[in-house]
Amino acid sequence: MFYPQIGRSLPQTPPVMFPADKNRVGPIPRESVPDVRAEKEGHAVVGSLHCLAQSRGRSERDAGHGCDAAALVEKQRVPGNAEDGSLARPTGLGLDHFLSHPHGSTLSLARSRWGRGQVPCGGAPRAFVWRTRSVLGARDNVEVYEILAPSPDGQIVLRTLDSSGLRAGPDTTVPRSDLPGLVARLEASQRPRWVWRTAADWYPRLLASGVTLRRCHDLMLCATLLTNSAYTGAYATSFTSSDDLIEQPGSLPPAAPPQGQGSLFEEEPVHGPSADELERELAAQLRSIADSAHPGRLRLLCAADSAGALVAAEMQAAGIPWDVETHERLLADQLGPRPRGFERPGRLEDKANELRTQLGAPGLNPDSPQELMRALHRAGIEARTTRAWELREFGHAAIPPLLEYKKMARLFAANGWAWLDAWVRDGRFRPEYVVAGVVTGRWASRGGGALQIPKQVRSAVRARPGHKLVVADASQLEPRVLAALARDDAMAAAARDADLYAGIAAAGFGGDRAKAKVALLGAIYGATTGESGRLMPQLTRLYPRAVAFVEQAARDGERGLTVTTHLGRSSPAPSERWQRLQRSTSAEEQRRADAAARDRGRFTRNFVVQGTAAEWAECWIAELRQQLRRLAALGVKGELVYFLHDEVMIHAEEEAAAACADAVQEAATAAKRLLFGDAPVQFPVSIAVVDSYDQAK
Fold first, then answer.
1. What is this structure's pTM?
2. Is residue 76 very low, low, confident or very high in pLDDT (cuts 50, 70, 90)?
3. Is residue 12 predicted with pLDDT exceeding 80?
4. Which of 108, 173, 604, 614 could form a cystine bridge with 563, CB 3.0-4.6 A?
5. Total Cβ atoms within 10 A of residue 470
6. How far apart are CA 172 and CA 158, in angstroms?
7. CA distance 96 to 415
């Protein structure tokens, strides 16, 4: 048969049978490809590149006829989703289900859950993607693992494994000073998936040497995930020393070494598991994923967490652009001149004196909770706490200056001159991120308050001359995630608009957006009493599947069961104390047991939604990172400098800002497709291109 796309004839050969219980099959002879494709419509061919995709039992062709295979995948028109184990794109997270055989121009198949027996080419399973490597020798889709580990003699060992986890040659041992150059060459030629105990061991120092990596497998992050996931069986980490597990997964050193330092790998030796131990751990993790209930989902989550480790290190190295003069000016405006030693700033001290006068307590230290509570009670203010919402209930003249003092004191303590001196260097704030530092998978930060930049200082977050800040946040992320998880078509319809709460209000709350928001957030967070409880029946009538989903999660938690996010992160088991409470022997103990059960139910109710939202957000930033890398290769420069739950910030050259904004939206679309396939739920992103952070809010 003659194929005009490649200008040659290829012989007819019978269909090829594949063993359905293997992660990768191949090599498949190149000559077999046209016959495999002959019965298919969903292919695109240019030169030596072939791409065939099938999803949900049907083939689909890209709308733009004649595009090459790489373009087809880049446009995300190849169907697939995480549950199947196929991906819409091979480039985003570096989670390559598109596995080419490393020898010659051959075709390989990435599959997930086929079942048992043989699967013929002509009758493909539910979701798969074919792709060959180019005859030019490009190895973009060849899965190669490169282990990075310290050696006993103080040097560094690099060990190459093929896509099956088998060694692909002898180890390479190099002095620490030679590592950045070698890693850069391997990254350019092989594009491996780097395997290490944790990114904190190596990546900050590589970044300081000007070396960036495309993808990695962070064994610590993945070990924590797989150990606790309900999707896995009897997985146990193979690290031989418990010391290897002490450090919080995803944590970073206090600061990346300064740029231009010549002996980065000679100053602080890296200690940790050997290459043999890392190889065993990788094999155990890959085996656990392959044998799990949802291998595609877990594989994606491991890739997302690992990509997050790269993003965290890169953002710490880049830093948030911070204008010190603006910060000092706003501190002087709100607090007064910079104080000496441990004195209070002038305006803060004036406010303290006003408070002392109103309370009749001339010696009061308003920073002491005990002294403040005694002074309040002596003045007839029967507050139980000094929380602002409770203090506002009292009409005493001391309340306004007290609330103002608390606000000013918080600014002084959290983001005052001491904070500025400690955390901002060379016009950049470099916080320490902890990937999956929260039990739901959300990120945390250690020191510096990176995840809580208050409105009072946001004007100091300012783009450098000739640059812009591209600030984006996902609108109403958790409710939209709930609609996708529950497969609630009615809620998905309400989520098609930019304002989901307005859509819900129009559907059944008489247009009252406030009531719709209270009802939905009550369902997600467990506030099912009071106003939220009164509105719950109406919400249940409108969206029975969504409400039933979170209610089931709550009931499971109350019974002491664990719950699991979409991709496979599971909630912790109940504590021993909780279990003891449930073994009640009296009516009073039973009341305490019921209260503890309800508390746990509220936790698990939100865990599945917040945790899956964290997975979407991590896929979002991982995809965005790859988009920005592609733009940078074209000379369009923007760097990801900040991430907070559902918000990102890019510091971009002014002429690149529009392209970066487009990349943000494209990454959000890709993240939705990775997690939820073609679910009819929209994930809109609000984007602002501004000079300073306060202008975006």
1. 0.78
2. very low
3. no
4. 604
5. 28
6. 5
7. 43
